[in-house]
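S.,

Sequence below, as promised.
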Amino acid sequence: MAAGQKLKLLRNRRNITGREVEQASERIAEVKGDKRFRISNGWLAQLENGASEPSICKLFSLGVIYHANILDLLRLYNIDVEDQEKYESIANPHLTQLLPKTSAADGRLGEELSIEAANRATSLLSEVAPRHPSAGDGNGNSHIAYGYVGSTDLTMYPLIRPGSLLQIDTSQTKLHTATWHNEFERPIFFIELRGGYACGWCELQGNQLLIVPHPSSPATIRRFTYPREAEIVGRVIGYHTRCVDAELARDSKQRSTSA
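The prediction came back faster than expected:
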């Protein structure tokens, strides 16, 4: 059912005429001192027929008159404020950022990450179950979080390439001085920074947290005051990464096509 028809159904359930909506909205507009909250009978008919869409002011008036939550009315027009975080990583793919809990709630997290990660931000999805809200990794582990490596994040390249999916254990937040024999044994951490996130090896020198890149990476060591400027989200315990860079793969495909 179209949004306008649903609004008409709401009005009919309240047993309110278009003229009564107009009169009620006039009172709201008068108190507000803003004529944008006024809804004429003719405009309401156009709205219910799908010929017009409401402004936020008119939608507010309709919510008041119909005793309806304005957030529910917004959803009629495919606007869900709870989706805002979900689209932040799409709007700003170059930034490291938290992902909303709903990104994994529909069970499509792994598929979305493996297909789309190369074009999105280094991101974290904390304390989320891919299919059930009480199980972070689907096995009752609420301390498991998921993250992206952003399209411009080369800190752990080529071990972990941009666009990779990370699995993070948020119960492991302490840095310990331990002997490791190779790069695969060395703990990798996901770090929350001021206004962003990072993924890399970590060292603690006094009150300075060092984010150490892979030796083959063009990235340099970054220093932050710990814990004021940097906080450990958790240890990376697994990752899904490409074995070939996306750009190299596209270039190779173009060369083979032109040959």
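The chain is about 30% helix and 20% strand.

Coffee later?
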